[in-house]
Design a protein that fits this description.
323 residues, alpha/beta, TIM Barrel, eight-stranded parallel barrel, two-stranded antiparallel sheet, 10 helices, 12 strands, binds NADP nicotinamide-adenine-dinucleotide phosphate, NAD(P)_OxRdtase_dom_sf, NADP_OxRdtase_dom, Aldo/keto reductase, oxidoreductase
């Protein structure tokens, strides 16, 4: 395996790997089964060994389980890792109850995160969403205070609008924007991505395979008990039409000798030096195929074909990203 190269996260930001490791699926977020812990820890360590230093977690992933896992994996090698933590989501019994972004809550959250991770400082700390329950100035101002105190190194934000991004950045410089982005979800290209670029903010792009739609493995109709069926993108005629679009990706993958998922990740990677694909991997066997995506090159013709087939809005129906 080649070592994953480093990029600056945002203008003159910290050096992080061009590919990030999403740890979310190593824990039970929605009440499902927890992944094999030993395999998860081995996956994180193998990622670090191969130059992937960007580790993404959230204090609500598995109600703290995910941070404990990351803490175990980086024990004795803190400096090899760049730890990105989201806060603010309140889950109970696998159900999303809402956000708690009060300054008093944030100060409480970080105390627990630092202990669970076994570190003195979190590299990137970010509200998982923003709403109108607490003024943006207070949420961002609290993280700015934590930066002054030395408990946090950089401010991040996640799943917000271009206007919210500008507002947050005016309170304290934002280092990174975490956002869902894939061939199937390109709506952010009209305003959010240009805003991030203009402000010199790095982009951490998750859900590159659009919840499995772009892996080429999905078949219509999905079983009724499949969680995807909650969203109209994966229902009835929508799914049939969407999978027809994916056929082009499947054929291109076959011709180039990769999998459709690899091409989906490679497409995100190719969108700019300031864009990092953030990919969930819960087992070591995923690492070689995903590290390989960093070397995939598209010809201009291939790129045009994908951009045409997956023009913004081409994939029909909604998903949890709600754009
Ligand atoms: N800010 C937010 O709102 C937000 C929301 C969701 C997620 N995230 C973060 O972003 C990360 C990634 O998001 P995600 O899990 O939704 O999307 P993802 O990276 O597309 O992962 C979805 C699934 O794709 C599988 N996968 C990975 N590489 C693959 C490959 N080469 N071929 C086929 N399948 C592959 C993984 O399977 P295995 O588990 O079997 O390896 C995973 O279960 C999360 O871990 C989390 O840290 C952030």
């Amino acid at each position: 395996m080649t070592t994953v190269k480093k990029i600056a996260l945002g203008n003159n930001g910290p050096l992080v790997s061009k590919l990030g490791l999403g740890c979310m699926r190593m824990s039970s977020v929605w009440g499902g089964a927890t992944n094999d812990e030993n395999e998860s820890i081995a996956t994180i360590q193998m990622a670090l060994d191969n130059g992937i230093n960007f580790l993404n977690t959230g204090d609500f992933y598995g109600a703290g389980h995910n941070e404990l896992l990351v803490g175990k994996a980086i024990k004795g090698r803190r400096d090899d890792a760049f730890i990105s933590v989201k806060f603010g989501a309140i889950f109970y019994g696998g159900q999303w109850l809402g956000l708690d972004l009060r300054p008093i809550a944030i100060k409480n959250f970080i105390n627990y995160s630092l202990v669970r991770l076994g570190v003195d400082v979190i590299d990137l700390y970010q509200p998982c969403r923003l709403d109108n329950s607490v003024p943006v100035e207070d949420v961002i101002g609290t993280v700015a205070d934590l930066i002054k105190e030395g408990k946090v190194r950089h401010l991040g934000v996640s799943e917000i609008t271009a206007a919210q991004l500008r507002k947050a950045h005016s309170v304290h410089p934002v280092t990174a924007l975490e956002i869902g982005y894939s061939l199937a979800d390109r709506q952010i290209e009209s305003d959010l991505l240009p805003t991030a670029k203009e402000l010199g903010i790095g982009v951490v792009a998750f859900a590159n395979t659009a919840e499995g739609l772009l892996t080429g493995d999905m078949k219509a109709p999905l079983p009724a008990n499949d969680y995807h069926t909650h969203f109209s993108r994966f229902q009835g005629d929508n799914l049939v039409k969407n999978l027809e679009k994916v056929d082009v990706l499947k054929q291109m993958a076959k011709d180039k000798g990769y999998t459709p998922a690899q091409l989906a990740i490679a497409w995100v990677n190719a969108q700019g030096e300031h864009i990092m694909p953030l990919v969930s991997m819960s087992r070591r066997s995923r690492l070689p195929e995903n590290i390989q995506t960093m070397d995939i090159v598209f010809t201009p013709e291939e790129m045009s074909k994908l951009n045409e087939q997956f023009a913004p809005g081409a994939i029909v129906g909604s998903t949890y990203l709600q754009r």
